[in-house]
Amino acid sequence: MLRDFINIGFIQTVVEGSVAWPAGTFQMSVESEERVWAELKKGFIDLMNGYERPNIIVIPELSVPHGYEMDLRRLANSSSTIVIAGIDFFINGKDVANRATVIVPDKWPLSNPSRTCSHFYFGKTFYSNEEEEMFKGSNLLQHPEIYILSAGEFGNIGVAICSDFFDIERFVVYKGRIHHLIIISHNKDTDSYYFLAEAIARLVYCNVIICNTGEFGDSIAFTPAKDSWNRILYRHKGPGLFSSQVVSLPVDSLDKEQDKGIKNVLFKSRPPGYEKKKF
Fold first, then answer.
1. Which CATH architecture describes the domain 5-258?
2. What is the mean pLDDT of the chain?
């Protein structure tokens, strides 16, 4: 049986590209590493001490320095919360990858602290023009795998990193299979992502969560609700702003209205050709 809601915790860190990766360097500067880790610790404290505890915490693209991955897992274990976080560029010789980690504490979804966790990585398929220019002469590794995460009573989750949000084939796969789509990004074209969030929420018929860097802001939680005033559940606009917030998104009610033949009461009509698929 699905839960009524899933609580998504946003930690919108401020990683300024020109400071984190000065011209000619490809790993996050020490100054940026220390700042972002302080923000991540503050974000976890804020979220864990709030009225609503998150079931999943999302952290923007390229926000976690490599030297702090073990510390991040310890934070996930102590809070017993799934974490989906962008990792600093992976560089091996001329090979470069943009990856994210998914951390699942062994006692999740119970609130008891965990001692151990499982984790895996997923990567970016399509790189931005800025990344191609930054790593000119390097081999940008593509990761075309499309993941669907089964979160049990919280529904199925699709994931993407930044410009993969524009990958039409990804949405063909996800349509009818997921309840939530989570995008982590370091994106300056915030309005385009906002408009795309509404379009994908309607076409894939799912909740859309975008956790963008605080350098540019505009993290979003969008649901395909019938009433327009109820679709944007969270939007944090403005550049240079750190923020942490827990947002509740529908699960069971959306799942019911994804079924063919069910009258749409709380959500917009299912898109043409929509068919709920089972694994």
1. 4-Layer Sandwich (3.60)
2. 94
Question: Which pTM was predicted?
Answer: 0.96
Contacts for 88-96: CB closer than 8 Å, 24+ residues apart:
88/27, 88/28, 88/62, 88/64, 89/21, 89/26, 89/27, 89/62, 90/66, 91/26, 91/27, 94/137, 94/138, 94/139, 95/138, 95/139, 95/141, 96/26, 96/135, 96/138, 96/139, 96/140, 96/141
In the chain, where the domains are located = 5-258
The DSSP bridge pattern shows strands 95-97 and 232-236 to be unpaired
| Phi, psi (deg, nearest 5) at residue 122 | -130, 155
Q: Are strands 5-12 and 56-64 parallel, antiparallel or unpaired?
A: parallel
